[in-house]
Design brief:
Helix content: 55-70%
Structural class: mainly alpha
CATH topology: Hypothetical protein af1432
CATH class: Mainly Alpha
Shape: globular
Strand content: under 5%
Largest sheet: none
Mean pLDDT: 95
Radius of gyration: 16 Å
Length: 187
């Protein structure tokens, strides 16, 4: 599946700007990890882009709608990774792609949440600040901290290094993601 085909599917099921941005941020991080690990960037990017494609339109059936659509198209590897991107669904982690998506989904969303409450957004954001925020259960309360921890463990990455990597990827795209520093109000 091409990125263009995936984007069409995503846009047919998702209109929420925040969900579309989340899909794009996870896509960017997955592509960067694929590049770093010598994996298929298009496959990893499409997986990141589509992992929550059905969440807005079919919240009670998520991720089954997108997984079934991908399976019908013959994209079993992507379908499996998406079916496994939450540990409580009980799906096995068979490939690096499966583990990568699990490791990148929740923490990428959390890092974006951290950036959004800072005037300088991603600029100067450090892993230690993100880790400190992870300890504050009331901040971005919908982010499952166990998923963040298990994802890093499954993927075999150090949490600090993982967060630093994601921040660096997002910083390269901060204009597109509308996460650039706020203009100073000083005259």
């Amino acid at each position: 599946m091409t990125r263009e085909e995936a984007l069409t599917i995503l846009q047919e099921m998702t209109s929420s700007e925040s969900l579309l941005r989340h899909a794009r941020t996870v896509e960017l991080v997955m592509r960067a990890y694929a590049n770093k690990l010598g994996e298929n960037e298009e496959e990893w990017g499409v997986t990141g882009l589509l992992h929550d494609a059905d969440y807005q339109a079919y919240p009670d059936q998520h991720p089954n709608v997108i997984v079934n659509l991908l399976r019908e198209r013959g994209d079993e590897k992507i379908a499996h990774a998406i079916s496994a991107h939450y540990t409580k669904w009980g799906v096995s982690y068979d490939t690096t792609l499966d583990k990568g998506l699990l490791a990148c989904d929740e923490i990428t969303g959390f890092i974006v949440a951290c950036a959004q409450v800072r005037p300088q957004r991603l600029e100067g954001l450090e892993a230690k600040s993100v880790i400190k925020k992870l300890g504050q259960k009331s901040f971005a309360a919908s982010v499952d901290r166990d998923e963040v921890r298990i994802g890093a463990e499954q993927f075999g990455v150090d949490m600090k290094e993982h967060i630093d990597f994601i921040i660096q990827v997002l910083q390269q795209h901060q204009d597109e993601l509308q996460l650039q520093p706020q203009a100073s109000s000083q005259v």
